[in-house]
Each structure stands twice: as C-alpha cells, then as structure tokens.
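User: Hi! I'm working on a homework problem where we have to compare a predicted structure to a textbook description. Could you give me the structure for the chain below?
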Amino acid sequence: MPLNLALFQAESVLGQPLYIILGVITLATLVALGLRFFINMFEVITAPGASLSHHGQNDNFFFSIFVVFLGGLIGTFGLLATQSLLTGSFHNIAVSLCNSAALLNSNANYRDIAAQYGISVMDGNFDIYVTSNLVFFPILMVVLWILVGSICFVASKVFGGQGSYGNFLSGLAYAAFFYSIGLAFAMPDSLAAYSASLEMVTASPSVLGIIGSILMLYGIVLFIMGISQGADMAGGQVIGVVVVLLVVLGGLSYLGYYYATPIWQEFTNSIQSYNPA
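Assistant: Happy to help. Predicted structure tokens:
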C-alpha cells in the first residue's frame, strides 16, 4: 500500500506537466498533418484494400513520419496514465525473481537482505531506462517503423516485389499508427500477466488492454495488406516477406538474449553471494 501511494503521488506531481507538454506536441502534430490526415485515416479504416497503396504513393515521407509519430504520442498518453501499474507490475516481477535467487544464498540470515538488494537494483534500472523515458516512445515507434519497413522492403525485392522504398514505407505508416497505440495500451496488461504467471495466479485483462490488443491486431492486418499493395505482391510472396521478417527479428532477439544472459547471471550471482558483513 505505501508503494502504491508513493507511485500515485509521484505520477500526480510529475505527470501533469508531461500531459500538458504532450498535449501541445500532439496538437502541433495534428496541425502539421492537417485535414488530409483525417481524410486519409477515414479511407484507411473504411477501405484499406483500396487506399493503402494510394496513400503510400501520394504521402511524402515526412508526412508518414508524423503519422507514425502521432500514433506514438497517443500511446504515450496511455503509458503515462498507467505508469503506476507498469512500475507496480515490474516491482512484483523483481520481488519474485530476486526472492528466488536469494534462496540460493548460502547464509540464510542474509537472504532477505540479498533479495531487497536485488529488488532495489531492478526497480532503479526500470525507473532509469523505462519509466523516465516513456516520453520517447513516439521516437522509438518511428525507429521501429523504419527498421521493420526496411527489412520488409529488402525482403520484398528478393521475392520480386515492385515499388520504391519511400512509397513502401509510407504504405506501412498507417499500420504503424494503430500498432503503436495498441502496443502502448496493451503493455501494462502484458507486464501484469507476466507478473501474475510468476506468482502462479491469473491476471484479468483491463479495458485499455483489450482495446490495445484489438488495435495491435488491426495494425498487423494493415501491415500485411500494406506489404502486398506497396510491393505489388501476391499472397505467397507476402508470406515469404513475413517469414524473412520473423527470422531477422528472431535472430536479433536471440542476439539480445545472448548478450543479456551473462549480465543477468552476474546479477543473480551477486544476490546469491550477497554478504553485507
């Protein structure tokens, strides 16, 4: 209860200026996009099969960047609104993992202290690398859009796809818009679900999490359609592009796991060997 109260107070004090700043940036982005954005979005929602390729060819690259950036901005509001849930869920994860690691400490008298040491380190790192950087979520989404789009564009050329790089990315911008919002909305529930799994209990999805999951699914559908239309490819060729993307992302994930494993092992060893004396 004290932890939740402290998180709520911190969110109330620090969140208000951030909401104002993000609101101003969002308004400025909408002004920069203009009425054309709302017309394009209406067409994408009502007739994606006929509009993604058209907008990919007619939207300039900077317009598409702002579309993806706007999706990230909207998602950031959701992340800030659920910041206490994010921090609380990660804290519960830290408690479960550090308590398990502390059980292997050779001195039973130091196990509780060792667990608290590990929890404080994990909570501190989460605050530094995640909580304090939530406002950079829109930039992260733009970078991921360019990265994933570039991988798919190269793969589409391998499978005989047509079209230019800029048009291809612009056709995927609207998928990134919805996926960015959905990812941000679903992230707290995902973290809470993982925390619950460590405690052998089930977590109930929130309304925001359900909305986020639907938006992510819709973004994926638009993404596949955008690849097909942007590169003028048939279904089998699109599957090939998606497989290549999954292989590349899987390889990058394994690379991250490979480098993170020794760091995690060193951290758990420090808990298991913790001796304040």
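For your comparison, note the following. The first helix runs from residue 2 to 33. Residues 186 and 209 are 4 Å apart (CA to CA). Good luck with the assignment!
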